[in-house]
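Box 3.1 A note on notation
Throughout this textbook, protein chains are presented in two layers. The first layer is the amino acid sequence; the second is a token string describing backbone geometry. Keep the layers aligned when reading.
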Amino acid sequence: MSTLTYLKSFFKDKDVASVTPTSKFCMRRVCSPINFNEDLTIVEYGAGSGVYARFLLPKMTPNSQLHLFETNELLFKKLTEINDPRLSFYDQSVEYVTDLLPDQLIGNTDYIISGIPFSFLDEETKASVLDQSINLLKEGGKFLAYQTSGHLEDALHKAFGNVQTDWEWRNIPPMTVYEAEKQPG
């Protein structure tokens, strides 16, 4: 996916937060907690043109599933060009994620990867997306996010009761990387 396509999307769509695809360095850091030796269910918020999907799929088992959400029409079109039976595509907002995904995924999702710009969301919507994410994850499941600033740390700590942060400087722009785990109970 070219930077030009991201630039076009950036200028046409207020919900696109980056002018370039995520770097391989950032993808490795975000995905470092994932155990690819088992069958997984992963949901990605803001899948863009599919750079994470292309990174994840070769590592995933044949029985794993990857559910991709992207609302930008141009990026969604590129995303759906990826042909793999483990993929499901959603061109709707993650504001309704638990209504859109199959019921069997609620409480059974291993990982959520999110690149959506949470700073663009109002507090109520942000809290709703994070609450739905907790409902979606199984116990011990992880919410893995990357953002252009540290603004998401407090919201994740409030929602999950825990959060770890790190930085990936080898990305344009540099990213704050978050990891929050669904606790028992």
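Residues 1-17 have pLDDT under 50 and may be disordered. The beta strands are 41-45, 65-69, 87-90, 109-114, 137-147, 164-168, 175-181.
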